[in-house]
Amino acid sequence: MFIRLLLCGALVTAAPSTLAMTLYKSIDANGVVIYSDWHTPGAQAFVIQQRSVERVHRPLPQAPIPRDTPHAYRYPLPWRGGPFRLTQGPNGSFSHTDPRSRYAMDIAMPEGTPIIAARGGVVVKTENQQAGRGGDASGNFVRVQHDDGTQGVYLHLRQGSVSVKVGQRVVVGSPLGLSGNTGNSSGPHLHFVVQRATEAGLVSIPYEFNQPVGALPNFALGN
Ligand SMILES: [Zn+2]
């Protein structure tokens, strides 16, 4: 993946002149072929010219899949109470169409429902002052950065209800605020999305809850 990004960038930036870059090919203990722009002992060096870049583009080695992919974590329902109803799922045609929200889920719930962290991490951004539709489509929100670098975002919260501060560490079940209907929201609901920072900005990534949205409250979690 790293090399793929590198080469894409090179294609864009190297336009009129000839591109030459040195890559190092090595094979790790598991037999996985690795290409890197860092030299390691025993690595085979070769130079890529611009015309060959596109050929290299196709047969790129598959990076080993990390054991702990973001998809592996199953999110507890981030609220207390319920059961509630999923009103818009991933790829929802109403508003889950752009890269930042494609895999978001909307759950209709009464305003004032306690919203809790579905995954531990550090609060990196909040908004708590927006009244009604306001200027920001997200309304009031809490953004939590998880330890794997992904971020969980809880949108449309009630004005003045956000109870965490930037820099604060939260664990699963930590109260974040109360649900609301602020920002670009057509009715009281929580919009919960998991995002990852990329070169192109924040993009949403698929996630799964660890039980059906319409399930009864999860008393094991205290909600
Ligand atoms: Zn939504």
In short:
This protein is mainly beta and 223 residues long.
Number of DSSP strand runs: 15
Distance between the termini: 39 Å
- Basic shape: elongated
Whole-number tally of structural domains: 2
Structural class determined from secondary elements: mainly beta
N to C succession of SSEs: HEEEHEEEEEEEEEEEE
What binds here, in terms of ligands, is: zinc ion
Query: How much strand content do the residues show?
Result: 25-35%
Main β-sheet: number of strands, strand sense, barrel status?
8 strands, antiparallel
What is the CATH H-level superfamily of the largest domain?
Answer: Glucose Permease (Domain IIA)
Helix content: under 10%
Q: Mean of the pLDDT scores? A: 82
Molecular structure report:
Keywords: Signal. It holds the Pfam family Peptidase_M23. InterPro entries: Cell_wall_metabolism_enzyme (IPR050570), Dup_hybrid_motif (IPR011055), M23ase_b-sheet_dom (IPR016047). The chain is mostly beta strands. It has 2 domains: 2-57, no CATH class; 73-216, Glucose Permease (Domain IIA) (Distorted Sandwich). It is 9% helix and 33% strand. It contains 2 helices and 15 strands. It has helices spanning 2-13, 50-57; strands spanning 20-27, 33-36, 44-49, 74-75, 85-88, 105-108, 114-116, 121-127, 140-145, 151-157, 169-170, 175-178, 189-198, 201-204, 208-209. Zinc ion (ZN) binds next to loops.
